[in-house]
Amino acid sequence: MSRSALDTATREFELGDNEFRRIQKLLKERSGIDMGPGKRMLAYGRLARRMRALKLADFADYLCLVEDPASDESGKFLNALTTNVTELFREEHHFDMLAKRVVPEVLNNGGRKLRIWSAACSAGDEPYSAALTLNRMPELANLDVRILATDIDTEILEQARRGVYPVERIAKLKPEFRSSFQRGVGANAGNARVNPDLRSMVTFKQLNLLDPWPMNGPFDVIFCRNVFIYFDGQTRELLVRRFAELLRPGGYLFLGHSESPSANGTPSLKNCGRTAFVKQSAQERL
Asked: Does the predicted model carry a pTM greater than 0.85?
């Protein structure tokens, strides 16, 4: 972007090079996300809203507030800069694999429970898509099914817990899935909410993937899709190893359409389909 275009876009506030570098550093330290120079205007637009709300006129003052451990602005800073792009049944082949491969394997092995983790759940589309898939499988009636959904963004998690979506998004679903949503009326017209039985299958928790993970596993499936694109290679490699540790032998890691484990990464993971990786046992790796 030319300097004149940037000056025009930043007329209200001045986002200097030093302040932008501070934003990049804070975001990297607190979330692992690499914000390239091409994201300068995105940072400006999202953080300017916070500055207006706080009645601040200077990015340096705002960043001091973010850095202040006594302030709660650090979380709002991360919420503002976290990108949440998702949709129900995005990359549908993973949900087909869940129904046609994962579930039969669990049942054939005498399993009594099914554990799934959506590791960057955004507005809930991914875990609810898994719940919709599993809820229509009568063979799971006697199986203990639980879905954990986590995200760094506390505001998007609240939206996910509500499970409310515009009706035009629901209209794209197959009829058997649309029946699992309740249409709003009156002030809620134009929206639809996930039925309580599906909401009860999903537990939403705030989690920064760079922090210690409180869960012990093992998981049958971990979804971490379209997240690695924001991390550098070292962070991606670290996360893949940690995911592999929490998968049971024979468990699956589902990544985004352009993502894969590092070549130096985790020998226990073997490609088994489109952006799908299965954890092999030590014997299988021999």
From this structure: no
7 is catalytic: no
Which of 46, 90, 136, 161 is the catalytic position? 46
137 and 58 in a common domain: no
| Token pair of 254 as six digits | 């589902």
Catalytic residue among 30, 50, 115, 151: 151
64 and 29 both lie in a single domain: yes
128 and 50: one domain? no
Clarify whether 144 is annotated catalytic: no
What's the pLDDT tens digit per position in 189-221? 899 999 999 999 999 999 999 999 999 989 999
Overall size of the chain counted in residues: 286
Q: Which amino acid is residue 277, in one-letter code?
A: F
Sheet with strand 219-224: strands edge to edge: 202-206, 144-151, 113-118, 219-224, 247-255, 276-279, 269-273
**Exposed (0-12), middle (13-18) or buried (19+): which is 100, by Cβ within 10 Å?**
exposed
Indicate which CATH number applies to the domain containing 144: 3.40.50.150
Q: Are residues 76 and 106 in the same domain?
A: no
Domain coverage including residue 219: 93-279
